[in-house]
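Question (not urgent): is this output format expected?
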Amino acid sequence: MTNHTGPLYEMNFVIADEVLADVEAWLEEAVRASLRHDGILDARVFEQDADEDGRAVRSCQFRARDDNALDELLDDHFPDIEAAAAEEFGGQVIIDSRTLREDHSHELAANESPVCRNCNTRLRGQYCGQCGQRSRNRLISIWQLLQEAFGDLLELDSRLWRTVLPLLTKPGQLTRDYLEGRRARYMPPFRTYLVLSVIFFVVAFFDPQKDLGLFFEPEPEPTAEEIAATVEAAEAKAAEGAKQHEAALEKLQQLNADGVVPDDLIAEIVDDDDDFQVVFGPDGEESDLFGDCENASISDEEDMPEWVKKRFSDERVKQICLRNQVRGNENFSDALLDNVPVALIVLLPLMALVLKVLYPLSRRYFVEHLLFFVHFHAFFFLMLILQILFSRATSLLGPEDSAVDNISVLILVVASFYIPVYLYKAMRHVYGQGFLITFVKYLMLSIAYMMGATFTMLGAFLFAVLSA
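Got this back:
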């Protein structure tokens, strides 16, 4: 196919009727003179439709040799033409000019599609101008898969790093940029939140020895002597606990005999020995999260609302207790941990509602306040990730009670104080109010945040208890 080279430069002349013939003759002479210029390959005059006022329009197009030649023509030749027209015809000719480039359709290879397979847009080249997908239809290589998987992580100019760095060092900047329309350079807010939350839970709770135990050499079975020693230690610990309990009860009974402790308190303590209890052992192994299920019940049932009595009868409470007892403390902790991300997501709209109440005159939508807390929680996860990694790295450099350990503790404390400071500075940057009023709203928001976090974590605990 024929493919012309060089850009086009177009000059449109709007001509008054009384000088139309003179301008046409003048244009023909200007075209002949232009063809003698080294940088011009071709020049033509076209008749266009009249403008809205009925005046004649003539277009003159010049094809330059290349971009360098066009730059030279724009510096001297084309301005000379406009100056000559203005000197010859004055205000009777109006000139409008622009640079054009021909849109040539490139031939596609045999294994490429003439339309984009992603959005069905006509392809002009090897990439789609609508969605950016490549036109090739062949299978991608393993190297391309790896590039797609880790490209954002390894490229210093990727959206991941352009998002993480200001998120960490510029409180409120991401939120403000997003609200003002500067969004393309950053990772979307909810994607940032999800990515950092997933990384946090992996870093904090992933145990290779436990979760990938298949790839590790199994622990040696304990010998009979070790088992006997463990049993003896457990029995000694239980005996010591019983002895301490008995001594405490004797002390209370002595106080009761002296008239210091009333009889009903002693009776209540003795009755509680056989009641449903929640006990946490100091080492996590001897603890029994769900104790005597036979006596499990909700205390003060008469004071409970009717809907609670219907849903938590004594029989159902016993079933829940037995089910969790069979499941074990470790599995219960896993179930509780699984509910924490959901609880944090529930906390987001609650805190956004608090911001909506604290800033009634800000004229911001609820989703804008929600965006603020999405970015803050993403920052919170990022700080926890860095703290955990830093703590683990410093633990490898020196033993406990060393200078390195003391310095690392100091750095972690300072980083922890940076989190509330970050929230205050983000509020000032996004909402733009003064120091004092922002501080008052910051205190109110902090109180609401602690209450909301407490209730959502209690909800996560109840879901873990009630789930099968």
